UniProtKB/TrEMBL annotation:
Protein name (Swiss-Prot/TrEMBL): SpoIIAA-like family protein
Lineage summary: Bacteria, Bacillati, Cyanobacteriota, Cyanophyceae, Oscillatoriophycideae
Pfam families tied to this protein: SpoIIAA-like (PF11964)
InterPro entries, per the entry: SpoIIAA-like, SpoIIAA-like_sf, STAS_dom_sf
UniProt source species: Lyngbya aestuarii BL J
Top-level taxon in the UniProt lineage: Bacteria
Length: 119
C-alpha cells in the first residue's frame, strides 16, 4: 500500500509505504505530484517506509516511466524507516541521481526528517 500523508508543506509530498504497492495507489500519487508541479518548479519527498514487499509489474513500469520523466523535478527526499537496506539505498541514490539529495532517518527521527526536507 502506498498512501499520501500530510507534511505541513504544499511543496513536500508525503508518502507512507506498507506492504506491496499496487497500480491504483501509485496513480493517486502521480496525480498529486503532477498537480503540485503546476504550482512549484521543484518538489520534495517525505517517505515513511514501514515495510516494502515490492510493486505490481504495472506499478513498477509506471514508476520507472514517471521517475525518468520527472527526474529533475525533485530536489530532496527524506526516507524514514527502520529497515537498514534503505539506509544503504539512500546513499546509493545520492550517487546515482545527483540532482536529488536523499537522506535516511530512523522512525524516532521523524521530526528531524520533516525539518530537513523543508529546509
Amino acid at each position: 500500500m502506498l498512501e499520501l500523508i500530510p507534511t505541513g508543506s504544499d511543496q513536500v509530498v508525503g508518502l507512507h509505504v506498507q506492504g506491496k504497492i499496487e497500480t491504483a495507489d501509485f496513480e493517486k500519487v502521480i496525480r498529486e505530484i503532477e498537480d503540485k508541479l503546476k504550482l512549484y518548479p521543484k518538489l520534495r519527498i517525505y517517505a515513511e517506509i514501514e515495510s516494502f514487499e515490492g510493486m505490481s509489474p504495472e506499478a513498477l513500469w509506471k514508476d520507472l516511466k514517471f521517475t525518468f520523466q520527472h527526474l529533475r523535478d525533485f530536489e530532496r527526499e527524506a526516507v524514514v524507516s527502520d529497515q537498514r537496506w534503505l539506509e544503504k539505498w539512500s546513499h546509493f541514490s545520492n550517487k546515482l541521481f545527483s540532482s536529488i539529495e536523499v537522506k535516511y532517518f530512523h522512525f524516532d527521527q521523524k521530526q528531524q526528517a520533516l525539518e530537513w526536507v523543508n529546509l
